């Protein structure tokens, strides 16, 4: 008999994914490698395993069973604070929507959530459409559309016009540099702290914060009115501050007003970039998509409901979210000891819930590596299997902007296909980079083979 063997009723010992000394698995935790790494480890070690690196240990909970568990139990057993605290500090605050839990989290979400919804986008659809129409109008037959840059420019301006009644174009590079670098330094650890001292970063930070402060001032000067501007995110924040000044400091307000850019800019733009990558890779699917786009715009700008009801476009986007989920996992801290899949996870342990591992499992999505939008069609609905599909996270911190994100991506895809006849480069091999979420690299372009309808007609 040996002491090392656990008794049947004892918790299982958590296996550790082997890695080189000191650095361990750290390089595999970068966002563009994370899902593949966690999926491989899940196959080898099962639903609980440790990953180590640079003196830290993370316990990973993975597979559909982990997602089902997280929906039920994460609010009680996990907290968000440690994963996001350093990001808060970069904005001079101690808390924000994503870094708090419980009643404080519900209070933030009640105020910030309204203008991230699908229905709010629906009411402001024309503003979003005018942005993509402006950018599409610049393209001619024979041009190459630079996918990543195009998506960043369109989505950032759409968020600015729709969510905060602003204009991001003069600040695009500042916002990208500031937000991406801050997340890469403070959240994903891809850049050293020193990066924040570089003059380019400091300038971008100052200009981005000045943009938000100017917007807040403008909203204070000209409030919404029944016969004027409808309330947007900043108006909602100002109303909340007026109702409870002890809760909302000026810095909280500034952080929350930046929220649409921090949470929405890269996520939605990078997902749209993957959608366009797939358009280039699957010319056989494009005629059905373009036909739906034509029908959507035939009688003028469509409503969001009409767009959502277009089956091929919708399933195409869902399949991109499955195979290219830009937020592959969520990082938390255990608030108390708990047991998952027979293993004891101690209070204080950093936990990764590998939310998108099931996206790549044949047992959830048969022939999971194949791009097949039909798997979302009635009769198959593979994503309905419990715990299978979680591109927007799970539990109380589930993406507050999923309605806005899906709506913008559908709208832009339909507008692009209505306007342009696009061809992928058969020689392009997908290379992903993390900025900080995964995106196709800058070499991805689509050739404009022709202009199908003038961009200006999108708004007619
Ligand atoms: C396809 C695009 C998007 C994806 C895949 C995505 C994914 C996610 C995920 C996985 C989370 C949870 C993070 C965690 O629990 O640690 C999250 C949170 C969040 N997202 Fe998104 N997101 C997208 C777009 C957007 C957009 C466009 C907005 C707003 C304009 C937005 C606003 C938020 C907010 C505010 C949170 C924090 C929610 C909370 O803590 O309660 N997201 N998102």
UniProtKB/TrEMBL annotation:
It comes from the Bacteria. Keywords: Heme, Iron, Metal-binding, Monooxygenase, Oxidoreductase. GO terms for molecular function: heme binding; iron ion binding; monooxygenase activity; oxidoreductase activity, acting on paired donors, with incorporation or reduction of molecular oxygen. Heme binds at residue 399. The keyword Cell cycle does not apply. The keyword Cytoplasm does not apply. Coiled coil: none annotated. Its cofactor is heme. Gene3D superfamilies: Cytochrome P450 (1.10.630.10). One of its GO terms (biological process) is sterol metabolic process. Belongs to the cytochrome P450 family. This is Cytochrome P450. It comes from Deinococcus arenae.
């Amino acid at each position: 008999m040996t002491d090392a063997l656990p008794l049947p009723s004892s918790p299982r010992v958590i296996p550790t994914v082997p890695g080189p000394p000191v650095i361990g698995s750290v390089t595999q935790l970068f966002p563009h490698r994370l899902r593949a790494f966690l999926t491989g480890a899940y196959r080898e070690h099962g639903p609980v395993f440790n990953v180590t690196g640079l003196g830290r240990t993370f316990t990973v909970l993975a597979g559909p069973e982990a997602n089902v568990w997280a929906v039920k139990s994460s609010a009680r057993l996990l907290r968000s604070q440690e994963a996001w605290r350093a990001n808060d500090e970069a904005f001079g605050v101690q808390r924000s929507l994503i870094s708090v839990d419980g009643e404080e989290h519900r209070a933030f979400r009640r105020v910030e959530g309204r203008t991230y919804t699908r229905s709010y986008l629906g009411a402001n659809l024309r503003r979003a459409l005018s942005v993509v129409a402006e950018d599409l109008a610049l393209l001619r037959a024979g041009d190459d559309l630079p996918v990543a840059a195009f998506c960043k420019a369109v989505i950032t301006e759409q968020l600015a016009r729709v969510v905060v009644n602003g204009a991001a174009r003069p600040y695009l590079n500042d916002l990208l540099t500031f937000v991406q670098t801050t997340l890469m330094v403070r959240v994903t650890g891809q850049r050293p702290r020193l990066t924040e001292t570089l003059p380019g970063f400091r300038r971008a930070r100052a200009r981005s914060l000045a943009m938000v402060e100017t917007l807040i001032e403008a909203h204070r000067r000209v409030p919404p009115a029944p016969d004027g501007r409808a309330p947007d995110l900043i108006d909602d924040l100002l109303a909340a501050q007026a109702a409870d000044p002890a809760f909302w400091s000026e810095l909280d307000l500034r952080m929350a007003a930046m929220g649409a850019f921090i949470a929405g800019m890269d996520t939605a733009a990078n997902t749209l970039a993957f959608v366009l990558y797939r358009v280039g890779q699957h010319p056989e699917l494009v005629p059905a998509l373009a036909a739906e786009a034509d029908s959507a715009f035939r009688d003028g700008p469509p409503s969001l409901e009409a767009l959502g009801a277009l089956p091929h476009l919708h399933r195409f986007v869902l399949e991109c979210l499955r195979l290219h989920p830009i937020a592959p996992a969520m990082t938390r801290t255990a608030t108390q000891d708990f047991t998952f899949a027979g293993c004891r996870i101690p209070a204080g342990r950093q936990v990764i819930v590998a939310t998108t591992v099931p996206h790549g499992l044949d047992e959830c999505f048969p022939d999971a590596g194949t791009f097949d939008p039909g798997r979302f069609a009635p009769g198959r609905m593979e994503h309905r299997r419990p715990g299978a599909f979680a591109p927007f996270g799970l539990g109380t911190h589930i993406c507050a902007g999923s309605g806005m994100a899906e709506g913008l991506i559908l709208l832009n895809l339909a507008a692009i296909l209505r306007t342009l006849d696009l061809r992928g480069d058969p020689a392009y091999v997908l290379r992903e980079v993390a900025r900080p979420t995964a995106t196709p690299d800058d070499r991805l372009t689509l050739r404009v083979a022709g202009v199908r309808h003038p961009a200006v007609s999108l708004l007619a």
